[in-house]
Amino acid sequence: MAVERTLSIIKPDATRRNLTGAVNARLEAAGLRIVAQRRIRLTRAQAEGFYAVHRARPFFDGLCAFMTSGPVVVQVLEGENAVARNREVMGATDPAKAAPGTIRKDFAESIEANSAHGSDSADNAAVEIAYFFSGLDIVG
Ligand code: ATP
Ligand code: MG
Q1: For residue 9, which ligand has an atom nearest its CA?
Q2: Ligand 2: centre distance to CA 140 (Å)
Q3: pLDDT tens profile 105-131
Q4: Which residues are known to be catalytic?
Q5: Please, what is the angle between helix 20-29 and helix 82-90, to 10°?
């Protein structure tokens, strides 16, 4: 296994309920190091650009509305196998299907308001990290 980086977003449902620290504690307990982090309010254009791959999906408009409904925390996580490990800690997209002890099982409100985003491949992680951070922002 190699040390990887992945892009994580703490979504508006979680920041609204003051769960940033609780989510970060789960990430750190799983061996993921937060090597960059910023709290921002996404514009509609920024949300649409980030989720462009989902543009044709029926949930796209609702997803972009949700992601701009409040602050998000964008972060770069670093660790062994970070992409897969973060996906494990987050749990399944639908909290009703997420395993016990995962972020989405314990914190998510719905399949849309599911508290966290994590890149789904190393290639996408590189693209998503570059969407929000420059190399100088990341301190490993
Ligand atoms: P993410 O990309 O946010 O880490 P994911 O990879 O588990 O989540 P995707 O299939 O990439 O899931 O969907 C992106 C996001 O779109 C989901 O996290 C969720 O917020 C929303 N979403 C996915 N499916 C649905 C759906 N059926 N109804 C409403 N929202 C959905
Ligand atoms: Mg995804």
Answers
A1: 1
A2: 24
A3: 999 999 999 999 999 999 999 999 999
A4: 117
A5: 130
Distance 86 CA to ligand 2 centre (A): 12
Q: Given pLDDT bands bounded at 50, 70 and 90, which one contains residue 100?
A: very high
Q: Whole-number mean pLDDT of the chain?
A: 98
Q: Ligand 1: which of 75, 83, 93 to mutate, judged by most atoms within 8 Å of the beta carbon?
A: 93
- CA dist 30 to 18, 24, 26, 90, 105, Å? 21, 10, 6, 11, 16
The answer to whether residues 9 and 72 touch, using CB atoms and an 8 Å cutoff, is: yes
Ligand 1 close to Cβ of residue 110 (< 6 A): no
Residue that has been written with the tokens 């299907």 in this structure: 97
Site of tokens 């719905």? 110
pTM over 0.85: yes
Q: Is 117 in the pocket of ligand 1 (CB under 6 A)?
A: yes
